[in-house]
Amino acid sequence: MHSFIALALALFSLQSILCVQAALYVIAPASGSTCHGGEECTVQWLDDGETPLLSSFGVCTVGLYTGDNQLVQTIEPLDVTASHSLTFTPIPEAGPTSDTYYISFISVDNGTVRAYSPFFQLDQMSGSFSSPLDSATASIPVPSTTATLDNTDTTLATITVGTLATVLPPISTLSATTPLSTFSPSSSRLTTSVSRTSAASTSTGSSIASGAESSNSASSRTNTLSPTTIGVLSLCLIVVSLF
Q: Of 114, 200, 206, 225, most Cβ neighbours within 10 A?
């Protein structure tokens, strides 16, 4: 009888603590709900706006508890201000099937800032509260709560890969005596083109000259009278003089 009364008082005291420290308000698992051993169980919370505010919690150690703060299983620590939910898998060998489980959040920066979920049930469990599982209650390293920023000024360096000339060099004056070896490949192409042009001009000039000579020869042939023509003309003149 006395042990029953003591257990009832302990549960009542714990429930009172849960109601007082409720700034981090756990909405899942809800009171009377059930999670299953060996299966994922989701824990969700929000800020109820009462002191201490959620922002004062920061990074917290999290655990599955029973009775008067008896640790059953450790859960990965996290920053409760950056995330409002977590998922863990209850280890069946960590405790028995019971409806006296709850989740505890304890601030790393201030151990007096705590929050608890309502009681909920875990079934499919095969362990015992009197024989805690060491591997389930082993501590998990807490992640760093701060990030160091390097405020060193960054100097941008200018690397010169090459130079680009903006002024073209003067073009050399080409002359008939300039040797081809003094020109660059691009000049060689120009010289070849000029040579071809000169050859074409020479060929054209030769053709014109030949045409001129042919024309002169034709003119010469045109202006010269044959003896027969002279004889016919003389005969015509004689006949005309007789009449």
A: 114
